[in-house]
Amino acid sequence: MRLFNRKSRVEKISLVLDRDSSIYDDYEEKTNKKWQKDLDKVFKGMKKNGTPDELKEFLAYRYPFHCWEYGLEDMKEIIWNVKEITPYLTKSGHIPTRIGELINLEALDLAYRSIDTVPEEISKLQNLKTLILGGNPINYFPDSITKLTNLEELLMGGFHLEEVPETIKNLKNLKTLHLINVGYESFPNAITCLENLRELDLMGNKITEIPSTIEKLIKLRELSLIRNPIKRVPTEIKHLKELNHLYLKGTNLSDTVKSHIKKLLPNAITTF
Question: How confident is the model over 47-75, as pLDDT tens digits?
């Protein structure tokens, strides 16, 4: 009987933790309020009765901030050692400053969390390799991000973003950079100092030309400028010997320029 009760408790908790489960089958305000109320009960219950071992890894991955807020002592060590999280926020749009305590973190996905500010404490995550912030109304390029010197992948987009700062040069290990639909009217020249960059996606901006300094990205393998009003491509792009894929759909390139690009990059797959 005790075993049955324990399984039943774990199953009930799991249903609430799974925001996309059948009992919360939409994202209407009424349903969301019910979920928040049930979630509060679940965490208060775990505070009182302990956290089921079967759920600790999932809680660390999805609800580390809730564990902190509700004071789940038996979650401290696993959260301290967690390497990857895609967390729900305890307060919509707010990244807690305690995030700086997750010094072992290697991947952080905060896409579509209504975030407009990135705390300085995020710069303490010196083991971070992947940071995903797409779909958030962040209208500035956080200086704290440029201090993440081991970062290899940075994904941002969906809202107007200020120009890339010169300090991005500190991200010497960056291999993948996405700045999609951020309203850029010119190619962010500061990017060309990222000599280890392999993949650059600037889709959906207002860029009209690629600068000759693109030749400095000698390790670039994939470049996307889809849905940009590009009119010209510099001859210097021919120096990108490792470029495998060039995406130029939805641009303003003439047939003559398109033909010239193919001659400049005979080994690359170019999509117009």
Answer: 999 999 999 999 999 999 999 999 999 99
Structural domains of the chain sorted by starting position, each given as residue range(s) with its CATH number in brackets:
1-78 (no CATH), 79-271 (3.80.10.10)
Q: For residue 61, give both structure tokens.
A: 């991955």
User: φ and ψ at 194, to 5 degrees?
Assistant: -85, 80
Query: CA-CA distance, 80 to 103, in Å (whole number)?
Result: 7
Q: How far apart are CA 154 and CA 161, in angstroms?
A: 14
* Tokens encoding 143: 């200086």
* DSSP collapsed to 3 states, the chain: CHHHHHHHHHHHHHHHHCCCCHHHCCCCHHHHHHHHHHHHHHHHHHHHHCCCHHHHHHHHHHCHHHHHHCCCHHHHHHHHHCCEECCCCCCCCCCCHHHHHCCCCCEEECCCCCCCCCCHHHHHCCCCCEEECCCCCCCCCCHHHHHCCCCCEEEEECCCCCCCCHHHHHCCCCCEEEEECCCCCCCCHHHHHCCCCCEEECCCCCCCECCHHHHHCCCCCEEECCCCCCCECCHHHHHCCCCCEEECCCCCCCHHHHHHHHHHCCCCEEEC
pLDDT band at 19 (very low <50, low <70, confident <90, very high): confident
Burial of 266 (0-12, 13-18, 19+ CB in 10 A): exposed
Whole-number Å distance between alpha carbons of 36 and 18: 12
- Residue written as tokens 């969301």? 32
pLDDT digits (tens, 9 = 90+) for 115-153: 999 999 999 999 999 999 999 999 999 999 999 999 999
